[in-house]
Design goal:
The chain is of the alpha/beta class. The protein has helices at residues 19-33, 58-61, 77-86, 94-108, 121-135, 147-150, 158-170, 179-189, 217-221, 239-252, 267-276, 291-300, 316-322, 350-362, 364-378, 383-398; strands spanning 4-8, 37-42, 54-57, 116-120, 139-143, 173-176, 196-198, 225-230, 256-261, 283-285, 303-306, 327-330, 343-345. 44% of the residues lie in helices and 14% in strands. Helix 5 (121-135) links the parallel strand 4 (116-120) and strand 5 (139-143). Helix 5 packs across helix 7.
Amino acid sequence: MTPRVLMYGWEFPPHNSGGLGTACLGLTRALANRGVDVTFVLPKELSIGAPFLKVAYADVKADLLAVPSALYPYATAEGYAQTADSSGLYGATLIDEVRRYGQAAGAIARSEPHDVIHAHDWLSFPAGMAARAVSGRPLVAHVHATEFDRTGGRGVNEEVYAIEREGMEAADRIVAVSGRTKEMIGYHYGISESKIEAIHNGIDAEGADQGLPERIHALKLAGFKFVLFVGRITLQKGPDYFIRLAKEIIEREPKTYCIVAGSGDMQGQIMQQAATYGIFDRVLFSGFARGAELAALYRWADVYVLPSVSEPFGITPLEAALHGTPVVVSKQSGVAEVLEHSIKVDFWDVELMAEEVVRILRNEEDRDALIKGAREDLKSLTWDKAAGRCLDLYRSLLRPVTL
């Protein structure tokens, strides 16, 4: 039997601000290639160019009036309150919006045929639980990050934590994006590890352009090197550690530029940090990048660094490796479990990380070995593999239990 999946999320390319949307695209496309019918539910109507799946919207399907929604990817309670007020939703909270989406999205389960419900992260867990209450179908909770990852363990939001725990407890099975995340769920949420399946994210390898943007040929020919950070500029991703790293690298290799591609609540702080270190002229802040622009940055870079304080998985190192860029990742990342040909260093050990980056910049043989090895690693890190494991999980939930 090929199950029909009702999937709940809160971002999907091209309207995504991070890796979760990329993961949803890769997984649903791979499931569709395996013949699975997927209906993907979003909080509000957006233009989604994904002909391989059906998209439903909570603000349309549930016969609600379209309202200015302030629910957006990676919102914090404080940031949501400010955005809500500017949208005319005075006094609304992020938790209110999540619950409201859950109530509206749950109604879709009454009319959309499905065999399995699949909900991504805490913003979608109430929607998944509401759908389960309507249809009685099994619920899979997919954990891409926990509140402990987002805060770096420095004081979790208790309301968010409660929703996460409620969703995990209600789910029939849980998908964690890494073994590290599986362990965190067991430890922090008291969920039996027998209920959790670790399924790593993947990447689609076709179409990687190995060319170099013409505009940087002159700098390359002049001997300049480029070290890249891509991600949300938030505590979880370690951008402050990247700026400390940039200082160490530039002191050792003055003809180096460090690029920060992303946006977030720590942007002003790390700009000030770069100025304080006297390296502001060598740190390029490119802003949020996607598509061809992001691909160009990967190809531009001589080394890619993921210095995350707590990273459940981390798709960007796979993207960098796909474009022929050697990768340095923190040991506190799930991707370190599967990208064998990468350099792995504790996020806090800036001195050692700088040594490793400089070694790659200086040693062509080491660089080429990392690039070649990572390309081999990517052959087994596919979305088709992840989709196959999800499909097996769906089927196990639908299999009659014999006593």
